From TrEMBL, chain A:
Cofactor: [4Fe-4S] cluster
Species of origin: Denitromonas halophila
Protein name as annotated: Ion-translocating oxidoreductase complex subunit C
Source species taxonomy: Bacteria, Pseudomonadati, Pseudomonadota, Betaproteobacteria, Rhodocyclales
InterPro entries: 4Fe4S_Fe-S-bd, 4Fe4S_Fe_S_CS, Ion_transpt_RnfC/RsxC, Nuo51_FMN-bd, Nuo51_FMN-bd_sf, RnfC_N, Soluble_ligand-bd
Region (Disordered): 514-559
Automatic annotation (TrEMBL), chain B:
Enzyme Commission identifier(s): 7.-.-.-
Location of this chain's protein in the cell: Cell inner membrane
Coiled-coil intervals, chain numbering: none
GO biological process, one term: electron transport chain
Pfam families in the cross-refs: NQR2_RnfD_RnfE
Modified residues (FMN phosphoryl threonine): T165
Family classification: Belongs to the NqrB/RnfD family.
Protein name: Ion-translocating oxidoreductase complex subunit D
Domain of life: Bacteria
Annotated function: Part of a membrane-bound complex that couples electron transfer with translocation of ions across the membrane.
Gene field: rnfD
Gene Ontology CC terms: plasma membrane
NCBIfam families cross-referenced by the UniProt entry: rnfD
The organism's taxonomic lineage, starting at the top: Bacteria, Pseudomonadati, Pseudomonadota, Betaproteobacteria, Rhodocyclales
InterPro entries found in the cross-reference section: NqrB/RnfD, RnfD_bac
Amino acid sequence: MIAGLFRFKGGIKPETHKNASAGSPIQIAPLPKQLIVPLRQSPRATAECIVVPGQKVLKGERIGLPDSPLSTAVHAPTSGTVVEITPHAMAHASGLQTRCVVIEPDGDERWIDRPTLDYASASPKEALAWLRDHGIVGLGGATFPSHIKAGVDGGIETLILNGAECEPWITCDDRLMRERADGIVAGALILKHLTGAREIVFGVEDNKPQAIEALRTAIHGLSGDITVIPVPSLYPAGGEKQLIRVLTGVEIPHGKLGGDFGVQCFNVGTAYAVNRAINHGEPLVSRVMTVTGNVDKPGNFEVLIGTPVEALLALGQPKPDTGRILMGGPMMGFELPRLDVPATKATNCLIATSPTLFPPPPPEMNCIRCGACAVVCPAELQPFELYWFSRARNFGKAQEYHLFDCIECGCCSYVCPSQIRLVDYYRFAKGEIWAREREKSAADAARERFEFRNERQAREKREKAEKLAAKAAATKAKLAAAPTDAPAAVATDTPAGPDDAKRALIAAALERAKAQKAAVEPKNTDALTPEQAAQVAEADARRAAQAAPDTAADAPESN
Amino acid sequence: MLTSPFVRKPTSVQQVMFTVLVALLPAIALYVWQFGAGIVVNIIIATLSAVGAEAAILKLRKKPVGLYVSDLSAVVTAWLIALTFPTILPAWILILATVLSIVAVKQLYGGLGQNPFNPAMAAYCLMIVAYPSAMSQWPAAGWMDLSTHLQLIGGASLDAVTGATPLDALRTGLRSGTDVDGILAREAFGILGGRGWEWIGLGYVAGGLFLIQRRVITWHLPTAFLAGMVLISGLFWIANPAHYASPLFHLASGGTLLAAFFIVTDPVSGATTPRGKLIFAASIALITYLIRNFGAYPDGIAFAVLLMNLCVPLIDMKTQPRVFGHKGD
């Protein structure tokens, strides 16, 4: 049971603008003409495509197989025909391309068979595989595969359901909690079962009283330790580490996960998707998104994954003076370089901007070290120090001052009276450090490869020489055993060495030649003169002798 | 293309500086009430020289003149110089001090945010070393009419109107063998400190509390400075009350209250970490007290501030707060 709330340091209270869309119930977005489904639905993992152009697919049919531990399955969001499988720009500030399956809907929305899973009797392994195969990822924005988080082996005490939704403008989680609280709670119970958590805590910012009420109604009468806690509305209270801190008092350092501290945190939308997957057999093919900003009809829509952003934006009816389009919230979202990109499982909000709603940033002035940034930093960093170090390219010092603990929440930039775009400096510094580390590890790898190859070549030469020497020794031994006199005596008297080997080989060759000569019918293939045989043997021995002593001083090959 | 965050708080350096100026108004009003409107004349002179100097050097440095002049930081420096300098100082010294603080102490180091030293205090130190007698001519307690003031700052010498500051009086009194109580009974002294100056001090406190409420400054610096002053003066006072003035006298005299809320709180040249701020401000109080009692100058705040400005990088480096999740490190 949560005794009292804790505080995280810092935080800001930007204008929320949530009223624009919070009042509008979730509507089902109409089917777009085409769905562009990226095979990459979570970071570091692209699913393996298992459909071909021209193939008919059903809604919920798998089109991408998870082929790595961090990968999840990808499904056809509706029934229709696969038109092509092609690289397509993804919803990212870079506008980079990723492999996408383009599906033309047939309009029937025909579902594939939807078997459900009795998770209480299923083995944990089975249930986790079920989540993976139903494409369940974190819907809070990071799209981390849920089967990994739910599969943390034991030690989880508290399961936190994140309904804080602290970013301004966004209301999709709010609406989901208001309208589908039962589904969220059902999903939370599944996640509790999978993680083995003792208690469930819903953390919802106190600016969403209706959502809190709906959740409380949904948990009413449930047995077990399950509570809904209103948390103070203070951005970024919905940051995983901040919410865990507020609800449990535990501070999770950079590089550690909640699971290491007995706390696991899922977005309420994820819990809802888990419920749909397990209790209804539906893979994750749609999610709720907010369309808001400079639009006539801001609202929340249940959108199929792969719906082009322009189609989605049109649902809100942007005003004529609409400028840039933001994906995600205004604090941590990004500007879309183009609008033909598909919505993904991470897409929670589209914001149409206008010069009045989002005025262009004023000119940057010098830092006056007022420390306003340090006061609001939820990571308790000294942002202005990081700014000075990043600006001076003093990356070592920036890391020493915990640059990588920065969660890029934007609080510092928000309050800076000198209008310094602080987060940009940290992104720059992080990028530079990563680039340098990549270069360094590339150089390290190249050096290792080179050293390994040198060693291999040396070893091969050594082995060859040893083999030859052994062969020579064997021949010597044979000669010694044979009823000939002088050469064998020499061979046995002196210690074995390259020269001895040579001599032994010459002797052996001569012996063989003699024997051949003595033979009645010499074979054509072996018709070498003794001189020839001796030359061959000598050459072999010379090569072996050269290779053996100076293998280390070998020059690298050009390749 | 822009990057997140796409929204920002409606705030600016100009707004921060404007708030500081507003916070100085109660003290200025009390100054006028106690000593006459001369201070306003000085503030105008200093402001004009500071803004003029700032604009000129920004132009020379090929920086956006309008952007940086309108940030009001030069105006804040000008007001602080006017308030810390003797009011009856010849105007040319005031102008020289202001121009030097803007040009040499601030802009030559890189302008706004780049100066390692507090501009007003650096100007004060320069002037007290260069013109020690002019810098110790303070008006006697009481109202002075504007024409007398104008004559004085025009360079006229009117010995009748000048008097020693409370700290000066205490210093010379103690040297001549009088004990503290005897000195404080004289006419120049009021209830706590110098007559008239106590009221202005209250104005600084009011302005300072306003700045804390508006989150322009944090409580750390004024609290540590005042606490440091009370502690060190209290120790000496308890040991020998006949020879050392009480903590209350030290709080109410000289620039203690002005410094507590408006000088040691300069963010640019001061320490920035919470613990660093405490060390920085308490050290200034300590050094100030030592200079007041054992040094060659009656008030040592300016020197103490400059000395501690030098220590800021070290203090900040050694007092970095623990970051989130690293409490056990």
